[in-house]
Specification:
This protein is an alpha/beta fold. Helix content is about 45%, strand content about 15%. The structure holds adenosine-5'-diphosphate and 6-O-phosphono-beta-D-fructofuranose (F6P).
């Protein structure tokens, strides 16, 4: 169960289209094999649809009304929980009239499972939109195995504790037999919050509550590494990467940022650090081009509109101040890209800058590494991305430290081929050994008990 189905309704083509992604590729074969179902929202408000079979999986759509989209999805999920769980780096809006729709929608998801499955069939619930579902399922079907995985960080108890509904959320999650997080830090934060805001007891990895044992574990998600490697290694992608560089004016150094347009991603500070580099290193002007791809996201939420304006203002300032007839410092693309185009950018870029202020994992970091089939390339990675726990041979930075970030960007641009290869070898080994299939298998083993 996830907030979104792995397929979305395409209004123009008038049909369901698969929405590919790591989670879908990892779980699809397992669900096909076990004749499982995927419960989720079809991505459009007010769409009522009977369950159907697509891509070998039974798809069980859950309807969300336009009003619920505003109060549950944009409101409680992305106006309250999202900023709160990302260390409250933006104001956390709390409204009592957003809480009720969150409960109602969670109950609808739980009811869909109850009517679709036998009472003892295991269920694996994904992410912050559905934190009450485990307890709702437990109440209706006490003998079922229930797993939950949080794809975003779980904040320190001092921040989580601001939530007026903190006890309800903890009780909701504790309905599961196993609760997974990307990092040890999130797992520890959760266990602490559970002990403070419920009667749960016991060590961080194994809580006891209401006569049950709840396993709390960290299992970092990964990507379909083999698929990215194969695509990046194809001659078509190699050609496209060469062409992209040429079309960008053949810069000596190509730097890349790829993110959903979200204030957690630190795109604004990254741009300011790049601006600092250009200010203090006139010799690099005309030599470095920065391509920033920002995927439109949650455009109805005010903070997302604010950050978009801030980013676009900065891009304009930098290009206005430093641009020349023969060189545009920042190429900014506000759109989604086809997988092939994205991979060609990864192959073309000498330096990838991933500087979130807080991120559950950050799959883009892993995708960049998988796509560096020639063993070169430099990853600049925020210490606040979950991925930094495993990718510690990247150039790890504190994204709030503008001078430090500017220093690291300079260092990345100028890093010698030998050190690039040493670091990249280690990083490539990490994403090869631990891919999304390993992640799904580990998690499902725990869920199934
Ligand atoms: P988040 O889950 O917060 O969006 P991640 O980095 O973990 O961040 O995952 C983002 C996913 O979106 C990656 O799999 C990446 O390939 C994909 N993606 C990022 N930018 C684009 C883009 N411009 N077009 C298409 N897909 C993108
Ligand atoms: O990383 C958290 C997450 O909710 C993912 O599950 C999702 O793919 C991404 O953010 C985009 O979010 P939304 O479903 O709100 O567009």
């Amino acid at each position: 169960m996830a907030n979104r189905l792995p397929v979305a309704w395409d209004d123009i083509a008038d049909r369901w289209a698969p929405s590919p992604g790591g989670l879908v590729s990892a779980l699809a074969p397992i669900l096909v094999d076990r004749r499982g179902a995927w419960v989720g929202w079809p991505g459009i408000a007010d769409r009522e649809e009977e369950p159907f079979r697509l891509e070998g999986i039974r798809q069980v759509p859950v309807t969300i009304s336009a009003e619920e989209f505003t109060d549950y999805y944009e409101g409680f999920c992305n106006g309250t929980i999202w900023p709160l769980y990302h260390d409250a780096i933006r104001p956390v809006e709390m409204h009592r009239h957003w809480w009720r729709p969150y409960v109602v929608v969670n109950q609808r998801f739980a009811d869909a499972v109850i009517s679709e499955t036998a009472v003892d069939e295991p269920v694996w619930v994904q992410d912050y939109q559905l934190q009450l579902v485990p307890a709702m399922l437990r109440a209706a079907t006490p003998d079922r195995r229930i797993g939950f995985f949080l794809h975003i960080p779980f904040p320190p108890v001092e921040i989580f504790g601001r939530l007026p509904w903190r006890r309800e959320i903890i009780a909701g999650l504790l309905g599961a037999d196993v609760i997974g997080f990307h990092t040890r830090q999130s797992a520890r934060n959760f266990a602490r919050a559970a002990r403070v805001f419920s009667t749960a007891t016991g060590p961080a990895g194994q809580l006891s509550w209401q006569g049950r044992t709840i396993t709390v574990e960290s299992v970092p998600i990964s990507i379909d590494t083999a698929e990215f490697k194969a695509l990046a290694g194809s001659p078509e992608i190699a050609d496209a990467a060469v062409r992209f560089r040429r079309e960008l004016g053949s810069p000596r150094h190509l730097m890349l940022g790829v993110d959903r347009l979200d204030y957690t991603k630190g795109i604004d500070l990254r741009l300011r650090a790049f601006q600092t580099v250009l200010e203090r290193r006139p010799d690099l002007r005309g030599q470095v081009t920065f391509v920033q791809v920002a995927v439109p996201s949650r455009a109805g939420v005010e903070e997302y509109q604010i950050i978009r304006d801030q980013i676009e203002l900065l891009v304009g300032r930098i290009n206005g101040e430093f641009g020349r007839r023969d060189w545009v410092p920042v190429h900014y693309l506000h759109r989604s890209l086809a997988r092939e185009e994205l991979v060609a950018y990864y192959r073309a870029a000498d330096v990838m800058v991933i500087t979130p202020l807080r991120d559950g994992m950050n799959l883009v970091a892993k995708e960049y590494i998988a796509c560096r089939v020639d063993g070169t390339g430099v990853l600049v990675l925020s210490e606040f991305a979950g991925a930094a726990e495993q990718l510690d041979r990247a150039l790890v930075v504190n994204p709030y430290d503008l001078d430090g970030l500017a220093d690291t960007i300079e260092r990345a641009i100028e890093l010698g081929a030998g050190e690039q290869r040493d670091r990249m070898r280690y990083l490539r080994r990490a994403v090869t050994r631990w891919d999304v299939y390993g992640w799904a298998e580990r998690c499902l083993d725990s869920v199934l008990g």
